[in-house]
Amino acid sequence: MLSIISVLQKERYLYKPKLPQVLTKNIDQISIQKGASTESIAFQSEMKQAFEETYGMPVVSFREGKNPQENKKLTVGVILSGGQAPGGHNVIAGLFDGLKKGNPESRLFGFLGGPSGIIEDKAIELTPAFIDQFRNTGGFDIIGSGRTKLETEEQFNKALSVCRKRGIDAVVIIGGDDSNTNAAILAEYFKKKKEPVSVIGVPKTIDGDLKNEHIETSFGFDTATKTFSELIGNIERDANSAKKYWHFVKLMGRSASHITLECALQCHPNMAIISEEIKENQKTLNQLIDDLCEVVVNRSRNKENFGVVLVPEGLIEFIPEVGRLIEELNTLLAVNNTYFSSLHTFEDQAEWINRKLSKDSSYVFSTMPNNIQRQLLMDRDPHGNVQVSRIETEKLLIEMTETRLNELKAEGKYTGKFTTQHHFLGYEGRCAFPSNFDADYCYSLGFNAFMLISAGLTGYISSIKNLAKPAGEWVAGGIPLTMMMTMEQRHGKLKPVIQKAMTDLQGKPFMSFVNNRDEWAVKTSYTYPGAIQYYGPDSVCNQPSITIRLEHNAV
What we know:
Blueprint: H1 7-14, E1 30-34, H2 44-50, E2 60-64, E3 75-80, H3 88-102, E4 107-111, H4 116-120, E5 123-125, H5 128-132, H6 153-166, E6 170-175, H7 177-192, E7 198-203, H8 221-242, E8 246-251, H9 258-267, E9 271-272, H10 275-280, H11 285-301, E10 307-312, H12 315-318, H13 320-335, H14 337-341, H15 346-356, H16 359-367, H17 370-376, H18 393-410, E11 420-425, H19 427-430, H20 436-454, E12 460-465, E13 475-480, E14 485-490, E15 493-498, H21 508-522, H22 538-541, H23 546-551
Parallel strand pairs: 3-4, 3-6, 6-7, 7-12, 8-10, 8-11, 9-10
Antiparallel strand pairs: 1-2, 2-13, 4-5, 12-13, 14-15
């Protein structure tokens, strides 16, 4: 194997991730500090009823002190859940190293293929030699991932049976908001059953929407945005060289525009659409097209018939009239799924849909291009909702902008050229070599997860704060999962979920963007971040995202 791997991969195996200073101490010299009891962010009475055993637990942090109980022998199972994010391997490496530092006889099992692994008892024991092959590398291929949801009594019983069989003391679930919601429910189940099995979550998603005052960023966001920004910078350089294409770049981020905002701050495109702003201002699709046309026309007056537009993946749901249409479609298809599935042609499906939709939504649906209509009616996601990632929003914007520009040209108000290219950047960033920031952050999250387990806690998510500072100054601790939860409509019913973090339209990252975007729209101001650097000065290799630096006044 070693003879065929890249030089970079060999070197990354040897990188030594940095930890918060407190976690570098001997395990028996680290004590836990507990704060006051906590409340969920909304629906407090409903949450207290749903989580009788784990609601109201305190925020905790680790500090130097004495705790002789923290070197006990443990057997832990780890699960990778949901889509890949750079750094997942280092979470597992940090967890493994923490276990072995606490007690060399502790064991770590990796459940294969995601949450289904713990239900089907498919696992491997992770050994030092095996772990060493994956340190500081991208991907989730160490044990694989999956999207099976742990939400039924039968699944919980099977998971409990497997934990008993293998003598597992704790389960670590590495995932996004849905996966960590499932971790909270599983922790509550084990507690009610009086089972001494701890459940700890780790915040993962490149989208950046698992975030709050205690979870300053989800892991993978830093690497993914830097990877995308390199590609966007390359596209900008090409646009400025050829001077004949408008590039529309769709970026991952269904529920929030954090990726688009960070990439805009890094690359200075001519236009970056922020979904949350569209919704806040109740901007219609036609108004958005007018905005795009204004930028194109203004640049054409400067003889610059080229540009770059960033489009968040989930934009279409945030456009008011389209969002209402999608809500109606989700409800209609959830309630009438059996009948709808019996309609075998798109024409029959569209005719039935148009009869059932409200007048306004039927009009919106009918005016959509045929390919967008088809994408709106595709198979639903696991929550019964439209699979927004399959909707080619960037192509919709191109088509509608072109139509409007032709109208302006006929009116003598536009004389330029509008030739386009479209891109979707998503999978390119999910399994990249983690940046030094993500390598350190993920390793710290995994090591810290061990500390939460060894402290006897359950129903917590691993938290590393103060991320704008060097790693040695990071603050390690844990947040009760119920503290981050609210109620949300799923399959027509209200269910407890971790609340997604939307782009803060009053926050410093967005305001920095607002203060510059009018100039970027007209003046070619592109910046070229280049490839992620792993070796060299801190200013080049170890800086966190611009978002984090702005939020912490570190820019």
